[in-house]
Design brief:
Blueprint (H helix, E strand, L loop, with lengths): L20 H10 L6 E5 L6 E6 L2 E4 L3 E3 H13 L3 H12 L5 H17 L3 H14 L4 H16 L3 H14 L5 H17 L3 H17 L10 H19 L10 H23 L4 H23 L10 H36 L4 H26 L4 H17 L6
Antiparallel strand pairs: 1-2, 2-3, 3-4
């Protein structure tokens, strides 16, 4: 049993909810035969009418007993013919009589949908499997897999709800289960700006990761990577809270703290990239670039606030700071180029790729503006670099605050 069900298939993100899912899940677990009802199979090689009568399923191609269809679905699953297996098992699940068989059918259908890249349907099928018997061992594993899928689909609220259910229901969670639960809970908390809960769950997961040495391997497990992604998000949000307008009296300390949080967030995102998973690597790469671009933007807001009596000194200072902070745009652009190159190599085509492309275009415009501004000042690059050195020397000469 693999703990990571996604494989290498690039996902398509769809965040719609099925409002009637609980109703249909309950129907699936009742095991009732649908006499004379007709459904259309939308996921086969070609759509066909499926008529389910007591104990028999009739299509335009064949007529099979429900038990035979169930057995064939399991056989196709073992052969890794996942799309066909899922179709057989989903149809059988709606007419099987034994509750244990119904749950197994939904469970295997969910894994088959997962393996074939249909993550949204996989999540629905896992939910149906859980609804059949919430406290069975099969339902427990199905819920862990469901949480992973919901996190992957960025349905943070649903993932958090399932994670909290597991945390409250089971007195003991296996280490991997606990990491999955805590990672999902943290991401849900972050989406609701609950930094306290997010930090608690992240640190709890990291304690397990370090205790079990899950972070030692060169290639991290995806569950571990998601915890580090959540850590990066927490640090990124904390950094964004440190603003420079209005100009704080301790601007230097505020800037230093912001830069340290940026580096700490980058370190966490880099850990997430060690899973070598295209989806999380693209998101993490985009976030790192966003850190540098946002810092540059906020620092540029400070320039109009600097008060110097001498216009010439003011002009020199502004140009020197522009030259210094342009490196932030360079770093952001470099990171986005690497991220987009990874997306091309791995056929990743998520919304994050589109965001990265737009961000890179915006950065190119910003970099052109900066170069134009620097070209207009009456100073050479060497004069600006010397001005920056004088600023650094002045800062180093200030007495350090005692802690």
């Amino acid at each position: 049993m693999t703990p990571f069900p996604f494989g290498n298939v690039a996902p398509h993100y769809r965040l719609t909810f099925l409002a009637m899912l609980p109703f249909y899940s309950a129907l699936g677990c009742l095991g009732t035969n649908h006499v004379g009802t007709t459904a259309v199979n939308p996921r086969g090689a070609s759509a066909q009418h499926v008529v389910q009568v007591p104990g028999t399923v009739v299509t335009s191609d064949e007529a099979l007993s429900v038990d035979d269809l169930f057995s064939r679905g399991l056989h196709r699953f073992e052969q890794r013919r996942y799309s066909l297996a899922a179709s057989d098992l989903e149809i059988a699940a709606r007419s099987l009589a034994a509750s244990g068989q119904i749950q197994l059918a939904w469970y295997r259908a969910a894994i088959a949908r997962d393996e074939s890249g249909d993550f949204k349907t996989a999540a629905e099928d896992f939910n149906r499997a859980i609804t059949c018997d919430e406290l069975s061992a099969l339902a427990r594993d199905a819920r862990v897999r469901l949480i992973r899928l919901l996190v992957f689909l960025e349905r943070w609220a649903d993932a958090g709800e399932q994670a909290r259910w597991m945390a409250h229901q089971y007195q003991y969670l296996h280490p991997v289960e606990a990491i999955v639960v805590k990672g999902a809970w943290a991401l849900d908390a972050l989406s609701n700006n609950d930094w306290v809960a997010a930090a608690r769950e992240i640190e709890g997961a990291r304690t397990i990761i370090e205790d079990k040495q899950f972070d030692v391997a060169t290639r991290l497990q995806r569950d571990v990577a998601i915890v580090y992604f959540a850590l990066g998000e927490l640090r990124r949000l904390r950094a964004a809270e440190l603003r420079f307008v209005p100009l704080p009296p301790n601007f230097g300390e505020q800037l230093e703290r912001r830069c340290q949080l940026l580096l700490d967030a980058q370190s966490a995102y880099s850990m997430a990239m060690r899973a070598y998973d295209a989806h999380w690597s693209v998101i993490s790469g985009y976030r790192v670039s966003q850190l540098y671009e946002e810092l540059h933007h906020d620092l540029m807001q400070v320039l109009p606030l600097v008060q110097l009596p001498d216009p010439e000194h003011r002009s020199l200072l502004e140009a020197a700071l522009r030259l210094r902070y342009t490196i932030l745009l360079d770093k952001a652009a470099s990171g986005l180029n690497r991220t987009l190159a990874l997306a091309v190599r791995t056929d990743e085509n998520s919304k994050w790729v589109a965001l990265a492309k737009q961000a890179l275009e915006n950065l190119r415009v910003a970099m052109a503006d900066e170069q134009a501004s620097l070209a207009e000042v009456p100073y050479t690059r060497e004069e600006l670099r010397r001005a920056i050195e004088r600023l650094d020397e002045s800062r180093r000469s200030l007495p350090s605050k005692k802690k």
